[in-house]
């Protein structure tokens, strides 16, 4: 079992040396075109602003645009004007797209499509709302054998492969691609990060939470860093806001999967759509349980992408060799900042993150 809570311990997740690798992080996932109605509702919006987003992609983009690391995305797009728009948006975020696959456009989208995501931000008593249109997306059609993993992990070199439960839920073939990628990553010494990221809408016709858990049972033995142990958002004053639930979940994971090096989970207290408390809890085999710094009463403009923002900040800390608590603080600070701007992706700077993360972050850079 995991030991007692410790507050100032050292973390060591042994990534490949930076000098041996072309990339710090490669993400495997779907990239969607987000249509944002601003302060309006989808049903009555006179116009939409577009940007790109996707659970796994958002992490790679933030690690490039905010944290200055070398990142790439493995995804698939349909070669039409919408796909070219997405491709340009990805490039603008500083993410390498050289491993992106193009599928031909059939003129209608019967075979393959570029996915869309209509997203309301929510405000006050009105919760955020997402309406995705992603059936038969190009990424969902990715199949094993289509990516040269030996070239990527063996010849080019990657320190961390990041994927998650959104990509693996798209289809049976994407789950198989993720499994293939994880096996290849370990063969060449690349660490695997996996965000559980359960989405009921993706699983409602594929077996629900039970099927998602069965897939995770198959994949987690090949994972080094798990992010996002499922814990529901809690209303203010709810006695279930106690951290004991996440602690038990972390303990169970650590006992069940001996290959795991590190686990992190965010804890969100929802006062309204516009005001949250935000914190994180982590565990590693070297440190036991560690609590990060709380971000209380943060003002929310757009909550979508906050969890991906946490994952990016947390992975940045691990890749830079910080201790576990500081990695958690980078995660919560960056996630909080992501939720202050519109869109899924990060507009934060490293100085923004360091300032919000506090004195420990400044000391790490001195």
Please explain how this structure is put together.
The protein has a single domain (18-365), classed as Ribokinase (UDP-N-acetylmuramoyl-L-alanine:D-glutamate ligase), CATH 3.40.1190.20. Helices cover 34% and strands 23% of the residues. It contains twelve helices and 16 strands. The longest helix is centred in the middle third of the chain and has 16 residues, at 172-187. The model is unreliable at 1-9 and 230-242 (pLDDT under 50).
Task: Write the SSE topology.
Layout: E1 23-28, E2 32-36, E3 49-53, H1 55-65, E4 71-74, E5 76-78, H2 81-92, E6 101-103, E7 116-120, E8 129-133, H3 149-156, E9 158-164, H4 165-169, H5 172-187, E10 191-195, H6 200-203, H7 208-219, E11 225-227, E12 234-235, H8 244-256, E13 262-272, E14 275-284, E15 288-291, E16 295-299, H9 306-319, H10 324-338, H11 350-357, H12 359-365
Parallel strand pairs: 1-4, 1-9, 2-7, 5-6, 9-10, 10-11, 11-13, 12-13
Antiparallel strand pairs: 2-3, 7-8, 13-14, 14-15, 14-16
Which regions have little confidence, pLDDT < 50, spanning 5+ residues? Answer: 1-9, 230-242
Task: Please give the domain count.
Answer: 1
- Distance N to C terminus: 36 Å
Whole-number mean pLDDT: 88
Sheet bearing the most strands, described?
Answer: 10 strands, mixed
Indicate the proportion of strand residues.
15-25%
Provide the CATH top-level class.
Alpha Beta
What is the second-level CATH architecture? 3-Layer(aba) Sandwich
The total of beta strands comes to 16
């Amino acid at each position: 079992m995991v030991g007692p809570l410790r507050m100032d311990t050292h973390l060591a997740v042994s990534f490949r040396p930076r000098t041996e690798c072309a990339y710090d992080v490669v993400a495997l996932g779907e990239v969607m075109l987000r249509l944002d109605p601003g302060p309006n509702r989808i049903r009555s919006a006179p116009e939409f602003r577009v940007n790109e987003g996707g659970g796994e992609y958002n992490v790679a983009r933030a690690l490039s645009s905010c944290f200055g690391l070398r990142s790439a995305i493995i995804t698939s797009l349909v070669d039409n004007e919408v796909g070219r728009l997405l491709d340009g948006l990805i490039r603008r975020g500083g993410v390498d797209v050289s491993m992106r696959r193009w599928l031909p456009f059939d003129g209608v989208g019967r075979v393959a499509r570029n996915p869309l995501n209509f997203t309301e931000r929510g405000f006050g008593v009105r919760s955020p709302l997402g309406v995705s249109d992603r059936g038969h997306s190009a990424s969902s059609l990715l199949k094993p054998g289509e990516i040269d993993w030996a070239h990527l992990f063996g010849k080019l070199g990657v320190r961390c492969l990041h994927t998650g439960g959104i990509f693996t839920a798209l289809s049976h073939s994407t789950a198989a691609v993720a499994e293939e990628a994880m096996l290849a990553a370990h063969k060449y010494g690349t660490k695997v990060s996996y965000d559980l990221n359960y989405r009921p809408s993706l699983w409602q016709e594929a077996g629900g939470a039970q099927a998602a858990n069965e897939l995770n049972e198959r994949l987690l033995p090949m994972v080094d860093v798990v992010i996002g142990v499922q814990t529901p958002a809690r209303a203010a004053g709810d006695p279930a806001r106690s951290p004991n639930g996440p602690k038990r979940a972390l303990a169970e994971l650590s006992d069940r999967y001996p290959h795991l090096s590190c686990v992190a989970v965010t804890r969100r207290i929802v006062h309204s759509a516009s005001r949250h408390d935000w914190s994180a809890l982590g565990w590693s085999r070297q440190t036991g349980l560690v609590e990060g710094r709380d971000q209380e009463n943060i003002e929310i403009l757009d909550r979508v992408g906050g969890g991906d923002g946490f994952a990016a900040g947390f992975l940045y800390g691990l890749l830079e060799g910080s201790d576990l608590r500081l990695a958690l603080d980078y995660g919560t600070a960056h996630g909080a900042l992501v939720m202050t701007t519109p869109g899924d992706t990060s507009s934060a700077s490293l100085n923004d993150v360091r300032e919000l993360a506090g004195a420990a972050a400044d000391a790490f850079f001195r």
